[in-house]
Specification:
Layout: H1 15-36, H2 39-47, H3 53-77, H4 79-99, H5 107-130, H6 137-190, H7 203-211, H8 214-244, H9 248-258, H10 260-264, H11 266-277, H12 280-297, H13 305-331, H14 339-345, H15 347-366, H16 371-382, H17 384-389, H18 396-399
Helix pairs in contact: 1-5, 1-6, 3-4, 3-5, 3-14, 3-15, 4-5, 4-6, 6-9, 6-11, 6-13, 8-13, 8-15, 8-16, 9-13, 11-13, 12-13, 12-16
């Protein structure tokens, strides 16, 4: 397929599997949010410094190397087996954290946990794409992300309560129970997936393939910027709020409100992109909202829960829209067998965390912690250039296709 054109591929819609995958995503999102927003504080406790970016640098550098070769594992063993194996590995990793005190030895399982968590999302993403169809990409991705992020909404509220009462050990024990349940559920529901991918290109072949698809590269940079935003905001916002004097119970409320846009806006945005507009105009609007809202964080020194909930809510309106529109745009330009391209696209997270750590570590030696929000906003603004250059996907209104009946497959248009 030419990268300058938009067409529907011959793909099969599997609604039952999509529902199952979305439920698993809900549980994974919940489990991820239980730890991810307080993890930087754990790193701070170990190292004694707010400048914790180096720990994420190590984790995501290893992840990047793995991801560039992950498609070979998927081609050899299948999407579902790769996903189940990663889930299974997370349980003993967390078990180690239960028994290890918060010292430098605990960094090893923590880094492994971060790597396994990211790989699990990539594998599940490939499974979802194999069950999806381009025509409904925005709606499918929007609903999937909405359900997943509903789990995220409840995570911080629980984790901050557990942290207050039981410390990090209470969180780790809870996660062992949760991931054991997720593994068993996924094992029963995903073990019989059809696998049809055997192609195993080299890294250079992948880079050459992607370099010819300019719009995929532009979407990649937009994805990189979004993940860069997540990296710095997730790492440093909890530390900054704690420095201002907010307690964990207050931060839990702030983060819960902050994540509500991911539940409210993603499905409607995907639906509008599919039916009315395509993704391009909405991506541009979303990036502007995300950048301006993040820029405003620099000027806030209030200790009010309401103020922080409102401003961080605003940042996530833009981020939630970029997230769904990025995915909708990208998956309309590839086929389910393009696991190497999916692999490459999902390296944006690892690359962004590495870049965020490399830039923020010396940056914070020179500038105060709150300056990190200015840096994040500037990077967000930089994504506007490739966004304006995107060749938009055509919506249903623009191509005027008839409704798709249940069980029907897409035809090339």
């Amino acid at each position: 397929m030419s990268d300058s054109e938009f067409c529907f591929h011959k793909e099969h819609l599997n609604e039952e599997k999509i529902k199952l995958i979305s439920f698993i995503s809900f549980l994974l999102g919940f489990g991820q949010a239980v730890l991810i927003y307080i993890l930087s504080t754990y790193f701070k406790n170990i190292s004694g410094t707010e400048n914790v970016g180096v720990f994420y640098l190590v984790a995501y550098a290893i992840e990047l190397i793995i991801l560039l070769n992950f498609h070979k594992v998927v081609a050899a063993y299948g999407r579902s087996r790769a996903f189940l194996f990663i889930l299974l590995c997370k349980i003993p990793i967390i078990l180690l954290l239960v028994f290890l005190p918060p010292n430098f030895l605990a960094l090893i399982p923590l880094i492994l946990y971060l790597i396994a968590g990211s790989l699990a999302w990539v594998a599940l993403d490939m499974i979802l794409e194999s069950c999806s169809t381009d025509r409904f990409s925005g709606r499918i991705r929007g609903l999937h992300l909405t359900i997943m992020n509903t789990g995220y909404v409840f995570g911080p509220l629980l984790s901050t309560r557990l942290l207050d009462k039981f410390g990090f050990h209470g969180i780790f024990i809870f996660l062992i129970i949760l991931y054991s349940f997720i593994f068993l559920f996924a094992l029963l529901g995903l073990r019989n997936l059809r696998e049809n991918v055997k192609y195993r290109p080299t890294i250079m072949e992948i880079l050459k393939k992607v370099s010819l698809r300019k719009n995929v590269l532009r979407a990649y940079y937009i994805s990189f910027v979004l993940e860069f935003f997540y990296a710095l905001m997730v790492i440093y916002t909890p530390i900054y709020l704690r420095n201002l004097g907010l307690g964990w119970d207050q931060i839990g409320i702030v983060f819960t409100v902050m994540l509500v846009p991911f539940v409210l806006f993603q499905y409607p945005a995907g639906l509008i992109a599919d039916k009315k507009t395509g993704e391009k105009e909405l991506i541009i609007f979303s990036l502007i909202v995300m950048a301006i809202a993040t820029f405003s964080v620099y000027f806030i020194s209030s200790t009010s829960v309401a103020v922080w909930a409102l401003v961080l809510f605003a940042t996530r309106i833009g981020a939630s829209l970029v997230e769904i529109l990025r995915d909708s745009y990208f998956y309309k330009r590839i086929e389910s067998t393009d696991i190497d391209v999916i692999d490459f696209f999902r390296t944006s997270r690892a690359a962004a965390y590495i870049a965020a750590a490399i830039i923020s570590t010396p940056f914070l030696f020179i500038f105060p912690l709150k300056s990190i929000f200015l840096l994040t906003a500037l990077v967000a603004f930089s994504a506007l250039y490739p966004a304006f250059r995107l060749v938009d996907n055509r919506s249903e209104r623009e191509i005027r296709v008839p409704p798709l009946t249940k069980g029907e497959t897409e035809r090339d248009l």
